[in-house]
Design a protein that fits this description.
mainly alpha, 9 helices, 67% helix, TetR/AcrR family transcriptional regulator, KstR2_TetR_C, HTH_TetR
């Protein structure tokens, strides 16, 4: 699923230079507000259950006025999911590269991903449920970015658990994501308790 990793410039941590990504372009506050509103509506009703008129009403504008910011509802979904995949890759890579060694890097990645899932549950729901509604080009872009995010985790996992193959490490990473990303549907505890519980479960799943 993921292309072979390139040599790292920091062998102790093993983060691919190619995993840095270009990062998401700057988004104006108003455009980001519209994306956030759309994420909440899509999560609540589903992509196909929300109209341009609904989006405009939530933003306090007419439906057609939304086209000043986005060319279509599909474009909103595309930018939303491309943005979050790039955010995960860019910030996750930075956190891992700031760590002193692979085990610490995995701890940093777990903490970051848990916080992301708990603070942006609507985006987790939309990505999981409305993936098939993405335009083809956006789907390929998201998929490529996600592969690099998985590769970031997998390379670190193989350094901490040298008996694992890279393929097995990717499977471990995906299973850990599944555990963490289930929280929008299962969160019942106060935020701090949920964070602590998920971090502990994820680290045990990673066996680190």
């Amino acid at each position: 699923m993921t292309p072979p990793p390139t040599p790292s410039t920091r062998p102790a941590v093993g983060v691919n230079r190619s995993a840095r990504g270009a990062g998401a372009p700057r988004v104006s506050p108003r455009r980001q507000q519209l994306l956030d509103l759309a994420a909440n509506l899509f999560a609540e009703r589903g992509f196909h259950g929300v109209s341009v008129t609904d989006l405009g009403a939530a933003a306090g504008i007419s439906g057609p006025a939304l086209y000043k910011h986005f060319t279509s509802k599909d474009a909103i979904l595309a930018e939303m999911l491309v943005q979050i995949s790039e955010e995960l890759l860019t910030i996750g890579t930075a956190r891992a590269m700031a760590a002193a060694e692979p085990r610490a890097a995995l701890h940093a990645l777990v903490e970051f991903h848990v916080d992301f899932a708990l603070n942006k549950p609507a985006l987790i729901v939309v990505q999981d449920r409305d993936w098939a509604s993405l335009p083809d080009d956006a789907r390929e872009q998201v998929r490529a970015t996600q592969r690099r995010y998985v590769a970031l985790w997998a390379e670190l996992i193989t350094q901490v658990r040298p008996g694992l193959t890279l393929v097995a490490a990717k499977a471990v990473a995906h299973a850990t994501f599944g555990l963490i990303n289930s929280t929008p549907r299962s969160s019942r505890l106060p935020m701090e308790e949920m964070q602590a519980m998920l971090r502990g479960m994820a680290l045990r799943a990673l066996d680190v």
